[in-house]
Amino acid sequence: MRAAPLPVRDGLGPDRIRMPAETAAGTIVEFLQATHPDEDWVGRMAAGELVDEHGRRVERHTRYQPTRFVYFYREPAAEVPVPFPVPVLHREDGLVVVDKPHFLATIPRGVHIRESVVVRLRRELAVPELVPVHRLDRMTAGVLLCTTDPAWRRPYQELFERQRVRKVYEAVARYRPELEFPRVVRSRIVKRHGELTAAQFFDGEPNAETRIELVERRGELARYRLWPRTGRTHQLRLHLAGLGLPIVGDNFYPQFLRRRADDFTAPLRLLARALEFTDPISGVPRRFVSERVLEF
């Protein structure tokens, strides 16, 4: 992918709009004013913050460029601050490992832009190239690995893509005495674009697998250790819910319940406890462990 022609600013990269092949507009500005009339295009031009994909400033007379991109900065809507820090577990050269809190998104998306690990750390650590090489759900806490050097990004991403990372999670969920552990759950998980929840099927070719171990029981609840072999969306939440063991604090499964944006009570009791792998750059064994404790 071509690098953006505008730099990261205040933790955020520029937005972009693709110009369609056909339009009645003769200039880029005419197109933008017609399709996005509420934006301040004149102000962006005056500040030199409206450019084409080659980084050239867009002026009023700049001719329309079909199928090309125009880049600009957009101020995101106000967000409810997530009142938890992002502790750094490890930092060296192009690698940063953090202990992500519950309720904080990994990457800027949808209504969670500034309140994301990426934007927060770019600002706090002054590293505009920081990106995560894998993701955790907004409601899941724990170990998250990021790179700050674009040359390091692909080698670490390939570790996850090729399933060469040993991931260990913990969860607090319901206890059912009739279930035997350890056990392996396999299912087919389907997540449709635009839908918040995923669907799980136990017939058809499995695409998700998790080994589950019972660690301890306290009354009607228990703590489980989970080893996901695959990384499907909401896999651990679905696999436990499918056993009749919904994770404490899960407002998605088995039933979706909407939460207020400012409600930081009752977090999902799911924690990415550890990541283990052979470093693709140095070749040395790596193991990073969360310092968080699930309320139980």
Main sheet: strands, sense, barrel: 11 strands, mixed
Dominant shape: elongated
Portion in beta strands:
25-35%
- CATH arch. level architecture of the largest domain: 2-Layer Sandwich
State the separation between the terminal residues, measured CA to CA: 45 Å
Notes on the protein architecture:
With 296 residues, the chain is an alpha+beta fold. The protein has 2 domains: 58 residues; 202 residues, 2-Layer Sandwich (Pseudouridine synthase), CATH 3.30.2350.10. Helix content is 14%, strand content 28%. The protein contains 5 helices and 14 strands. Strands 4, 5, 6, 7, 8, 9, 10, 11, 12, 13 and 14 form an 11-stranded mixed β-sheet that branches. The protein has a 3-stranded antiparallel β-sheet with strand order 1-3-2. It is elongated and about 75 Å long. The model has no long low-confidence stretch (mean pLDDT 95).
Question: Would you kindly provide a brief summary of this structure?
Answer:
With 296 residues, the chain is α+β, with helices and mostly antiparallel strands. It has helices at 28-35, 41-46, 117-124, 150-161, 235-242; strands at residues 15-18, 50-52, 69-72, 88-92, 95-100, 131-132, 141-147, 166-174, 183-190, 199-201, 208-218, 221-228, 270-278, 285-289.
Task: Annotate the secondary structure layout.
Elements: E1 15-18, H1 28-35, H2 41-46, E2 50-52, E3 69-72, E4 88-92, E5 95-100, H3 117-124, E6 131-132, E7 141-147, H4 150-161, E8 166-174, E9 183-190, E10 199-201, E11 208-218, E12 221-228, H5 235-242, E13 270-278, E14 285-289
